[in-house]
Design brief:
5-stranded antiparallel beta sheet; 86 residues; 28% helix; globular
């Protein structure tokens, strides 16, 4: 199963979701980012060696971005000060 088929959206608050890799157990790099709907756009917050924000016109575009960038984000997180967020 590819990552785009394994994404899990967990409601964090109204209009906000935690995006996880459903193939991975909690605490083992499952967390990929947050998506929040704001004024008709979807803001993505990802964690690498820092916090990175991007904005997209649709949830699909936001999730596609997470899938495309997750390998580099996870590598950056594993090597950075925010590794504990896995």
């Amino acid at each position: 199963m590819q990552l785009d088929e394994a994404l899990v959206l967990e409601a964090a608050a109204p209009g906000s979701w935690r995006v996880c890799d459903g193939r991975v157990a909690a605490g083992n790099g499952r967390f990929l980012g947050f998506v929040e709907e704001r004024d008709g756009a979807f803001e993505v917050m990802q964690v690498a060696n820092d916090f990175i924000w991007s904005t997209f016109p649709s949830m699909r575009d936001a999730l596609d971005h997470i899938v495309a960038t997750s390998p580099s984000m996870l590598l950056g997180r594993a090597n950075g000060e925010l590794a504990w967020l896995s």
